[in-house]
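Late entry, evening session. Most of the bench is empty. Finally got around to the prediction I had been postponing all week. Sequence below, unchanged from the version circulated by S.P.
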Amino acid sequence: MAEIWKGAPVVAAMKERMLADTARLRERGVIPTLAILRVGQREDDLAFERTAIKRSGTVGVEVRSVALPEDVDQEILVAQARVLSEDENVHGLLLMRPLPGNLNERMVRRAMRPEKDVDGITGISLAGVFTGSDVGFVPGTAQSVMEILDYYGVDVKGKRVTVVGRSLVVGKPAAMLLLGRHATVTMCHTRTADLPAETRRADILVVAAGKRGIIGAEHVSPGQIVIDVGIHVDENGKLCGDVRFDEVEPIVGAITPVPGGVGTVTTSVMLEHVVRAAKKNVSLD
């Protein structure tokens, strides 16, 4: 039976780090602040916003929510993103996505300053992932993968890591982070020929294909570490991942659950990015 690597203890460890930093920032008159820019009333956006507000209060970060109507004009949305980016009292900016179909997300991203882009969606932030620059931040879910591996004591140096998924949100940035830690990384996707052969040879398997149940017993080997990034709703209305947990868990050495795994950590990563942004212009020595 595999070890179940839950996100909750990772979040608790991150909370302790953030509390120490936010206390020192507040001593210097700096209140780390996140602005959430939301268009419309999508239930998943509202749920995420509620979670962010609740968790931020436990780590000393303030949240400013800016809600615009679903039929907002493109220019007004871009202008609001620019205003929040230029506000000295806002350290991080989160754009809730996807936007309604009548809006151009790229134009909004261009209006955001990368040093406040706490979810790593601007072009400069993404470029920084590939170049090793510290301008901007790594996409939150990709960083969550690394936080989990670090918390559970995994040194990826020299390990064979297979990433299933090639999105700019998770797969590609996760691969770059792993390469930066000297892992030997193989990238696969839904069109990879003989995917099971590729995934079975990995020491660590990161699954971010965005396809429910794409990984089953035939894809894994004894002793592997499996990080399941996917999140879906099955035919019974229950949350599940890209991995068929019941098949895989008896075989591998460790696995993250869905729910309760990577997704649990992502909000804390975003808040820690806010704290890091606030620290950049303040000496805490």
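Two things to note before I forget:
Residues 140-263 form a domain with the Rossmann fold fold (CATH 3.40.50.720).
The chain has two domains: 28-134, 140-263.
Will write this up properly tomorrow.
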